[in-house]
Structure formats: structure tokens, C-alpha cells
Amino acid sequence: MPELPEMETYRTKLAERVTGQTITAVEVTREKTINVPVEQFVKEVQGASITGVERRAKYVIFKLSTGKSLLVHLMLGGLMHVAEAGEDLERTKQVILSFGERKLLFIGLRLGYLHLLTEEQLAETFRELGPEPLEPAFTLAAFLELMEKKRGALKTTLVNQKFIAGIGNLYSDEICYHAQLLPTRQTNELAHQEKENLYRSILAVLKRGIQYGGYIDLPIFKGDTVTGGYNDHCFVYDREGEPCDRCGQTIIKDEISSRKTFYCKNCQQ
After folding, report:
1. Is 132 designated active site?
2. Which of 81, 95, 178, 231 would you label with 89, given CA atoms 20 to 30 Å apart?
3. Whether the predicted model's global pTM rises above the 0.85 cut
4. Which domains can be identified in the chain, with CATH numbers?
5. Cβ-contact 259, 169 below 8 angstroms
């Protein structure tokens, strides 16, 4: 499932290509992907222009000139791709937004969705989300205050969207590795220095994920050589049986709260 670095990559790349553009046509092939009747969706979206592309947690928000927004959550298997004139993908598209000959394809949204929302509905969707870890307000002091109230395994804490927004299965493992902490450690048992290290690792790993274009299976546009680069730079995620880059010991795969988890038992304590 795409996490903060993936959705931030989508935000920046899509903003470059659709901001200021008018939606000239709308095609919906799966009604369950949207939240209003197809006829209403097409009527409200077609003819509107994209005034901006934003991100909150694992969501991307397309701001419309009508005052409403299109909110996308890709969930498991969802992708977005900008197709230029004459380009097509042999993938199942649930929604297609056309900007003249350019098309924005929403692919694999069998669990994900694209909802048309008012500002009030957006605010309600985000109401219980935790802080954005890359925002200036997410200081060490703010993080330590959050940690004072938490109990439970570190892995489970990091993926809790009410605790911090945007971290999921992949980056929680990468953060624990970077901080040299076992994902099974109890948050309330971490020493002060370990919490400081964890804070710095959250920032470092998420920025690194963005730098390498996230963990995405499909380029966002033809000729895109950045998106998906993190696939080749994971510390531990999906590397079961491979040697740890730090100590050489074998990376193991485990399960914590029904989530697959990768770590090095030797150099994570």
C-alpha cells in the first residue's frame, strides 16, 4: 500500500502535469470507486480545472475550481499514471480524467477510491489523523510528548495513523532498522536517547523514500526514471534471507499484529 513517500511523489509529479488544466472528459468504469452517482460525478467534475494538488497522510487531494476536491486513496494495488496522446496501458482503469489529449488514469482501485468531497467532508475525513512527520510543527519535543502517551509494540505504534500520519508497513520496518531498534520493542520501554534516535530516523527514512521516488510499480508518466527507485534501496523490507548491509547477518521475516515485518535481529536491539 502506498505510504507517505509514494503519495508525496505522486503529488509533486502530478502537480507538474495537471495543475491549471481543465478536465475535458470524465469516464467512470467502476461505480463503486466513486462516492456519488456517476451522472452527478461527471456533471460536477467535467469542465472544472485543477487548481492544486495536495497530500495529507496517504491521500492525494486534487483541488477543483468549483471549491470541491477529488480525494484519492490508492489502498492495496492502486496506481495513477499520466498518459499522453496515443499512449495506452493494458491495465484496468476505474476512472479516467481527460485534459484534452492528456489523460490521468486511476488504475487498480478495487479497494481504493476517488471521492468528490466538499471542504467540510475533507476536514471530517482527516479529523482523526495524526501529525504530518515532515511538517515544521513535528519537532523533537512534539514527538517526545506523543511518545509519553503510547504503549505497545513499536511497529504497531508507527503504523497507527492516529499517532503519526503516513507511515505504513514498509517504512515502519525501514525506520526501525535505521534507528537500530527491534520492531517488537515496547514504546513505553524505550530510553530517552532511543526515542531521539527514532525521531531522527523517521525524518531521515521518509525523506530518503521521497528522494528515491518511493516504492511504486509503475512510472507516473512515460520517461519517468525517478518513480519507484526506492524498490532498489530498501534496508530490510522484502529482503528476507539477504545479508544485512550493516552487519552482514541474515534479514528475517516475522509477523507482528498480522503484519509482515522485516528486520535484522543482530544489529537491531
Report:
1. no
2. 231
3. yes
4. 4-126 (3.20.190.10), 140-263 (1.10.8.50)
5. yes
